[in-house]
Structures are given as C-alpha cells and as structure tokens.
Specification:
Helix content is 35%, strand content 19%. By secondary structure, it is an alpha/beta fold. The strands form 4 sheets. An 8-stranded mixed sheet has the order 7-8-10-9-13-17-14-15, with helices on both faces. A 6-stranded mixed sheet has the order 1-6-5-2-4-3, with helices on both faces. The protein has a 3-stranded mixed sheet with strand order 11-12-16. It is elongated and about 80 Å long. The structure holds zinc ion (ZN). Zinc ion is lined by residues 298, 300, 348, 375, 377.
C-alpha cells in the first residue's frame, strides 16, 4: 500500500500538534554550545526564546513554540536528558493528553553546515522519522520540517517512503502487523514551493522504486527463481512503457552466452537474460548502460559454500534487482538520456549437470574461459552480459554485483568498492555516489594481479590468487568490455543488506546502489 504524503505549508506548530492520536516528529538542528555554524532559524528564534524556552541555551524556533505550550517543561526535560540536537540524538516527549498528538519526538540533526543543507541530510531526516513511526506503531505521522530541509521536498518524500519500508509479506497471524504507517503530513513552517506536490510525488515514486529492489532482494530463493526475477522486470516495463526483452535458456544458448548458460546448468530453474531500456521523447544526450548480477541463489555450485550464512545467498541477485528499481525510477524521472539495464539471471546449484572446476567454455565475447572455482559464478554470467552491453556502444557502462567476499574484508560491510577504466568515469561516478549519499570507495585495477589469471589451456582463468580477490574480479570483467572507454564496476557485496537500521534503511535489503546510479543518470541529463 502506498503512503499518503501531504505537504502543509505555513503550519504553526500548534496545528501539527492538534493531530489526533498521531506521532509528531520535530527535526532539530544542534543548538547547545552552538558556534558560528548555528543555523539562521536558531537566531531568528532567539527573541522568542526570551519568553519561553529560555532553558535551552540556543533554541530553535519550533522548539520554542513547543516549550511554550508545555510551560517550559520541554526545555527542562531536554536539558535533563542532555538533548542538544546532536546527530542521531532523539528525545521522546510523552504528551500526557496535553495536546491531541500522542507522542512527540525530537530528532537531532547535528550541526547545520553554513554552506547549506544537502539533499542527503533531508532524505536521512525523513527516513529516520518514518522508521520511528513504524517502531512506534503509528498509522499517521506529522513531520515538522526544520528550516533548510524544506528546500529538498523530493528527498523528504524519498526518505519517508524508504524509511517506512518493511518486508512483511510472509508474516501471518499475530506476526502480521495489524496496522502500518499510511498517512504522513509534512508540516512546513514556511511557505511550500509551488511544485511541492510534483516534488513529493516524484520523491515517492523514486522511494517506491528503491523499495522494489529491496523487495526482490528480500524475496526467498524458492519464490524468486531467475524466471520470476525476469518477470518482475517485465511487470515494471509494462507499467512504465519501457522496452523489455527476455531471453530464455534456449535463446541464451542460441546467442552463444555460454558462460551464463554454464552457471545455470546445475539448477532446475533455468537462467534468464533481461534487457530493459528507456529512451527519452527527444534526442538523447548520452547512452548509459547498467548491468546487474542476478544469481537468485548461490550455493557455490560444486565448490559448495559452508552451511553457515548460506541463506544470505538469496541476496546474490541484488545487482539485478537494482536494475528493476533503477528503471522504475528512471521512468518516473524521464531524463533526456538513453538508459539500458541488463540482468544476467541464474541459480548456482550443484546438480548432476552442474558445471565443474576444470571445464572450459566459450563466451559471447569469443574468449574461452577455464573454470577454477564454481563459486566465482557472478563474473561468468556478467562476462556475457558485458559482451552484450558493449554492442550498445555506451558512453558509460556500469556493472554492479554482489561479487566478492574479499570486498567486505577490504572495506567492511557498509561500503562498496568501485573500479573505473578512465579518470572521467571515476570522477563522474564518484560525484554521483556522493550526491546520492551512499558509500562507495574507488579501488585500483592493479595490473600485476592479471598474471594469476593466465591459463595453460584456455584464453583466461576466471579467478586469480586468494589475495586481492575483489580486484581480480574487476580485472576479469574488464576483459569483456571490448573498446568501451568508460567502464565502472561496483562490487556491492557488503551494503546491499544491513544488520542494523540506519538513516533511510531498515534492517535487511537496502537497495544500495540504485540512488547512486539514478544520480549518475540525472547528472548525465543535466550536462
Ligand atoms: Zn558464488
């Protein structure tokens, strides 16, 4: 069910608090011990502070009004609890029937940067507010948006939609949530921009698109074999008038995608190859091609994985799942660039027909590949997908995959690695990631590691040494991009899921990557 988001402008706090049986979340910039960095709103609030709220050393306008309603009790409580609006700080204020709203939560935003509030801060604030509403089991939420954040209504709507996300499809009886957050009022103290409705609608559609990627990633492997993942792409294409092509196992063989077929051989669930595309109404400024790994379950194949943690391998299709969400978001945005998304989908299982270590296969690119470890299947299906993608002659080719555990060893579980074949591509991709507020760190393509992939019996081995595993994965993929100049590979194995809710991400699948790729698309359309 879709959230109902309404923007109310020039809302005095009293109106926000008058909402019956609702949770009111008030964003607060850091205000105590404030330096020159303190926000303008705080300074404006200073005169009013002399009446109420003088308990706060430098209160913000919204707090002052709230404090007045409670005869100074809120500032006294905030002082006692040492609430200073620091980032990640929250203060739950019970209302005891003093106002109709059941609970008020003050949400700390940290120091406000003098250079301005970023869209990422706005999305993060709204995401935290929505997560809080879900935790508090509120069906309706009022978010009092502080000054600065109100300039980013689209990201506020994105954050609300992302933060309210839960994967509850398989819960029944008592476990099934009886009620869920359905209504959000965004209360602006100032005037709303004229396009407020369009901005929130766009933000909501983008949030829902990322949630779609999360849904696919959270879906168990028994419910999401390659054919179902391909079907999800078709549903999005139909709903948004995108072009879509799906190749079944027969077509995959006919098109000589031998590596993709080889990986899928060990499963009864046949592989699928998906090509989604969007073209703008006018002339396209650029052509961006994205590729995603769609291993719907990765047992490791004959090089089988240890039992512990194998269930997590249902998320091994997150790169492809990201493609579905990305294209839904692109369809909402209608940018003036051409965007293609390619998904290589297979299940890696150890059946009697499974591919083996030592096997040699051809590929769409023509190169022959010697199989070393059947658990390094992602780069094989991607090699054929990249060979297909290069024929589209992209200005920028981006691959994304939960490719290696080595990447987690290098950067931890909250940050992805990315590799780029040109400085231009690296700069552009890095800027997009920053703009989106996701964490990805550039890693080097160390040429010496290529030596370890030399094969005596085929053109190339598909794995190298144990050390530098994420890098050799990237080097292997690079073999299949032909003369594409701008290529980026993102190894997203860590952040596609999270054990701990943070910012706009609840626990579980995050859809990590989609927002960065979308920002890449928007940047290309802007230039
Ligand atoms: Zn694997």
């Amino acid at each position: 069910m879709s959230l109902q988001i309404t923007v109310r402008s020039s809302t005095p706090l009293a109106t926000a608090l008058a909402a019956d049986d609702e949770l009111v979340v008030i964003g607060c910039w850091a205000f105590a011990g404030s330096s020159a960095k303190t926000d303008k709103g705080a300074r404006r609030g200073k005169s009013a502070a002399t009446k109420a709220g003088k308990g706060l050393s430098e209160p913000i306008a919204e707090l002052v009004e709230l404090d007045a309603r409670f005869h100074g009790a809120v500032s006294a409580y905030a002082r006692r609890e040492d609430f200073k609006g620091k980032r990640e700080q929250t203060l739950r204020v019970p209302t005891f029937g003093r106002v109709p709203a059941r609970t008020i939560v003050l949400l700390g935003l940290g120091e406000r940067d003098a250079k301005g509030v970023t869209p990422v801060e706005a999305r993060s604030f709204a995401g935290r507010a929505a997560r809080m509403a879900v935790t508090e089991k509120a069906t309706a939420l009022v978010v009092v948006v502080p000054s600065g954040i109100d300039a980013h209504l689209r990201q506020v709507a994105e954050g609300l939609t992302l933060g309210a996300y839960r994967f509850t499809k398989y819960l029944t009886g008592d476990r099934k949530p009886k009620e869920s957050l359905s209504k959000v009022t965004v209360a602006l103290t100032g005037k709303a921009p004229r396009d407020a409705k369009a901005l929130t609608e766009l933000g909501q559609r983008i949030g829902e698109a990322v949630n779609l990627s999360r849904d696919l990633s959270n879906e168990p492997a028994n419910e999401l074999p390659p054919a179902a993942l391909a079907h999800a792409a078709q549903v999005v294409a139909r709903a948004n008038r995108l072009k879509v092509q799906v190749f079944d196992a027969k077509e995959i063989v006919r098109r000589k995608m031998h590596l993709l077929y080889a990986v899928g051989r060990g499963s009864r669930n046949e592989p699928r190859f998906v090509h989604l595309s969007y073209s703008p109404a006018g002339k396209a400024k650029k052509r961006l091609v994205f590729v995603g790994k769609g291993i719907t379950f990765d047992s490791g194949g004959l090089s089988i994985k240890p039992a512990a943690g194998m269930g997590e391998m249902k998320h091994d299709m997150s790169g492809a799942g990201n493609m579905v969400g990305l294209m839904a978001a692109v369809a909402a945005l209608k940018p003036s660039v051409e965007v293609h998304a390619i998904m290589a989908c297979a299940e890696n299982m150890p059946d009697g027909d499974a591919y083996r270590p030592g096997d040699i296969f051809g590929s769409l690119d023509g190169k022959t590949v010697e199989i070393i470890n059947t658990d390094a299947e992602g780069r094989l299906v991607l090699a054929d997908a990249l060979a297909y993608a290069k024929a589209l002659k992209p200005d920028l080719l981006v691959n994304n995959a939960t490719l290696t555990g080595a990447c987690l060893v290098a950067l931890g579980s909250g940050c992805s690695a990315f590799y780029a074949t040109s400085e231009d591509a690296a700069a552009e991709f890095g800027a997009a990631v920053k703009e989106a507020g996701e964490q990805m760190w550039r890693m080097p393509l160390i040429e010496e590691l290529r030596e370890a992939m030399r094969s005596d019996v085929a053109d190339i081995k598909h794995t190298g040494d144990r050390y530098g595993g994420s890098i050799t994965g990237a080097l292997f993929l690079r073999e299949f991009i032909g003369d594409v100049k701008n290529f980026v590979h993102a190894d997203i194995a860590g952040p596609v899921t999270t054990e701990r809710a943070f910012s706009w991400n609840p626990k579980g699948a995050t859809g990590h990557g989609v927002l960065s790729y979308l920002s890449l698309v928007e940047r290309a359309a802007r230039t």
